[in-house]
Amino acid sequence: MQFRNFKLVGYVIYGRGSFNQLDQILETKRSEGLPMIFLVDHFFNNKELVKRIPVKENDKIIFADVTYEPKTTYVDSIAAELKEEFGSVSGVIGIGGGSTMDLAKAVALMMTNTGSSADYQGWDLVKVPGVYKAGIPTLSGTGAEVSRTTVLTGPTKKLGMNSDFTPFDQIILDPELTSNVPKDQRFYTGMDCYIHCIESLQGTFLNEFSKSYGEKALQLCREVFIENPARRSGGDKWDKENDDKLMMASYAGGMSIAYSQVGVAHAVSYGLSYLLGTKHGIGNCIVFNHLEEYYPDGVKEFKKMVDKNNIHIPKNICAALTEEQFQVMINVSLGMKPLWENALGTDWEKIMTKEKLRALYEKL
Ligand code: NAD
Ligand code: ZN
After folding, report:
1. pLDDT (tens digit, 9 = 90+) per residue, 25-73?
2. What is the pTM of this model?
3. What sections of 34-132 are H helices per DSSP?
4. Is the minimum distance from the CB of 41 to ligand 1 under 6 angstroms?
5. From the CB of 143, is ligand 1 less than 6 Å away?
6. If you take atom 35 of ligand 1, which residue's CA is the nearest one?
7. Can you give the CATH number for the domain in which 98 is found?
8. Measured in Å, how far apart are the chain's first and last C-alpha atoms?
């Protein structure tokens, strides 16, 4: 048996207002003449947060367009522009949700690795360390702040650059930064974390390491999405404590899947996202809503959360698809072998046949 020996994030800072320490943190990471690049979610363009970014000399702020989830072409174009303008850079700092953090990780890697980021979609293909990189989440749930991957849509596949060089050197977990996230978005990305926990805790790959983190993250999700809204009858109000908890739930959920794997909802939602561009958080919700057969308790609780928080989950999104389109989704989904194996065991191919998966897609 070969145990996974995984690389973690280098440094972690947690707390309200910890963003203010960014300047101090970066001080020793600056190389003479080379700029720090701040890749910032476009939501923050013209917002207060931008004024708090410690921009020095030739540093540069780039607003990341996250209308679509990150593509390899976008990563390559940012890296090419930076090389052209500066030769090299001191580091790349990603400030935003999962999309911006993934983009920052990938750009940092592509500052030193040759060719296209599409060449590195897969496992352990990245050849050399990238430049220094830090991640600062402004939206909680994906666990992208702790993971060893950066999920990219490339010319032929949607797959991460999974490698020991991918985790951030530093993360700053400042829950204050998540206070403006719209209610639905907070729920969808929060549910990404909830689903990570259910899929990890009910997976065949589970061990005590994953369980410890998964159970804690699950408890925090329950406090945030069930107990808290219930207390304030209506659930439209939000508070600081929820932001604090959700940020730690995201971190712990990410740690849980680092040593296990996700499952059915992720495998199926990857198909949706590849074909229809459905975003990760909402896509997982659309799928999970129909997974009673696989996660009966989790789905029941999920529906309770949807109700309590007054969230709309889209339905019938596959109603107008052609046979060919169904087959594309089925093939993408069945290609996610480790996810199926974690969810259904080594005999998963006998359980999740193409016909069964097609019937599931038809329900979405
Ligand atoms: P996102 O980063 O795509 O952002 C969603 C929306 O929220 C955007 O419109 C953004 O502008 C907005 N937003 C972000 N912060 C905000 C704030 N503080 N206030 C107001 N609006 C804000 O959403 P996400 O769910 O965090 O990330 C999804 C992405 O993460 C997908 O690309 C997915 O593939 C990736 N992902 C990566 C990993 C990993 O391990 N690397 C894991 C899960 C998901
Ligand atoms: Zn996820």
Report:
1. 999 999 999 999 999 999 999 999 999 999 999 999 999 999 999 999 9
2. 0.96
3. 48-51, 72-86, 98-110
4. yes
5. yes
6. 98
7. 3.40.50.1970
8. 39
